[in-house]
Design goal:
The chain is α+β, with helices and mostly antiparallel strands. Helices cover about 50% and strands about 5% of the residues. The chain has seven helices and four strands. α1 runs parallel beside α2, α1 crosses α5 and α3 packs antiparallel against α4. The chain binds glutathione. The site of glutathione has 11 residues, from loops. Glutathione binds next to loops.
Length: about 200
């Protein structure tokens, strides 16, 4: 299988974390795609031009972080990307959606800062900055939910990779004002799948 990524994509990192958790990282070739460039050769592989993108052993291309994670977990008969039954299933759905909301907003903020200075929108940046900090306030409370510290799940992975955007976005300084979340992120950073997919170790 071949997985197309970019170095600073938090979505691609989620998939890479999952490959480590499933212990299949050595069976997947990781290729760096050139995104957001006119006429990139990558567009002949994935017409949307987005990463992550997985090409399976039988040549089928799969787009979308959650779909790729579900595919890999199903192929490994592993429940990492599944929801449990009952109340925990609904709580995990809620936490995953909340993490995904942080991920989407931070990605827009990061993308905006990568545009040429004269094309950047201060309105978009301020909108996403404010959203990110409102959501951090919610996470400072929700991080105590038992599902955020028990067995690894999709909400934990998504939140970790979303907040990992701090490495590429110096203006995203949140740790001082969110001590519970800061301690949580430091604990998780020691996990080998997170450590191995840190951009500095990648
Ligand atoms: N909904 C997609 C989002 C993926 C995404 O936004 N990827 C960004 C990198 S973080 C990308 O490839 N951008 C290139 C582009 O927009 O052309 C998913 O879940 O995988």
């Amino acid at each position: 299988m071949e997985l197309f990524v970019t170095k600073n994509s938090p979505y691609a990192r989620i998939v890479r974390v999952v490959t480590y958790e499933l212990d299949i990282e050595d069976s997947i070739t990781v290729s760096h795609a050139k995104t957001r460039k006119a006429d990139s050769p990558y567009y002949t592989i994935n017409p949307s031009g987005r990463v992550p993108y997985l090409v399976s052993d039988d040549g089928i291309g799969i787009e979308g972080t959650d779909t790729i994670c579900e595919y890999l977990c199903a192929a490994s008969k592993n429940s990492l990307w599944s929801y449990p039954n009952g109340d925990d299933g609904w709580t995990l759905r809620r936490l995953h959606s909340l993490a995904h909301s942080s991920l989407e907003g931070l990605s827009v903020w990061l993308r905006e800062t990568h545009r040429p200075k004269n094309e950047q929108s201060s309105t978009i940046i301020e909108h996403e900055r404010a959203r990110a900090f409102r959501l951090l306030g919610e996470w400072e409370r929700s991080i105590t939910d038992p599902l955020m510290s028990g067995e690894l799940n999709r909400a934990q992975i998504t939140l970790f990779c979303a907040l990992g955007i701090e490495k590429f976005l110096p203006e995203f300084e949140w740790r001082g004002a969110h001590p519970a979340l800061h301690a949580y992120m430091n604990r998780q950073a020691n996990r080998s799948s997170f450590f191995n997919t840190d951009e500095t170790n990648f």
